[in-house]
Amino acid sequence: MKKARVAVLISGRGSNMAALIDAAKGAYYPAEIALVLSNRGDAAGLAHARMAGITTAAVEHAAYGHERESFERAMQDVLDRHGIDLVCLAGFMRLLTTWFVARWEGRMLNIHPALLPAFKGLDTHRRALAAGVKIHGASVHFVAAEMDSGPIVAQGAIAVREDDDAQTLGARVLEIEHRIYPIALGLVAAGRVRITAGRCVMEGAASVGQALSVPDAQGAGNTTQHR
Ligand code: GRF
Domain 110-227 belongs to what topology? Predict the structure, then answer.
């Protein structure tokens, strides 16, 4: 099996990146993390990736001023040099131009800390609490031109507790993120996800189940669907 070569793009601490690196250590995992790329040389995740033996690179967005496309062309050069097949955005805090998004159409994933299409944008946990939703979670989706949109590959949901604040809720969502991102990347890298009419269609019932994580549906700690 030829593993897909994946670049993880980060801007900060990189906990989702770390989850992907861990998953990719599996002998049968269909992807390898070939590169971690950041728009900030001081991103904490870069040091973690290097310690894990992963090649890292930084393309400082600040060096390009408002030239978003030249910044992205510089990133694209790095991705080309490393023969990258798939890109995973993981806390990558730059908006991408339609040029870059089109270049990676169907080959670029993002993780968002909410059940899309609800709560696009930032500050999702505070907004979810303010809206009084009872269920919250995270989504992995293919990246489309519009922010936090694009075909959804996997979602994980948790119950909102009455005493949750944005921090406690966010911490439980982050655990879900770390679970669903490796699953989603695995499904995509294995070629088990097809995009049809703007939606993801999974190959095989097992893939459908894997892409759905609802750990506390039957009460806290009772896992129904996950690896
Ligand atoms: C995560 O909550 C992710 O969903 C969002 O940015 C955060 C990144 O965290 N897009 P980390 O750097 O992966 O720890």
Answer: Rossmann fold (3.40.50)
- The pair of structure tokens assigned to 18 is 């770390």
- Find the 128 Cα to ligand 1 centroid distance in Å: 17
CATH entry, 1-104, from 3.40.50.170, 3.10.310.10, 3.40.50.2000, 3.90.1170.40: 3.40.50.170
Give the total residue count for the chain. Answer: 227
Burial of residue 44 (CB within 10 Å: 0-12, 13-18, 19+) is middle
How confident is the model over 2-45, as pLDDT tens digits?
999 999 999 999 999 999 999 999 999 999 999 999 999 999 99
Q: What is the pLDDT of residues 45-95, one digit of tens each?
A: 999 999 999 999 999 999 998 899 999 999 999 999 999 999 999 999 999
Tell which atom from ligand 1 comes closest to the C-alpha of 89: 10
Nearest ligand 1 atom to alpha carbon 112: 4
Q: Give, using CA atoms, the residue closest to atom 12 of ligand 1.
A: 14
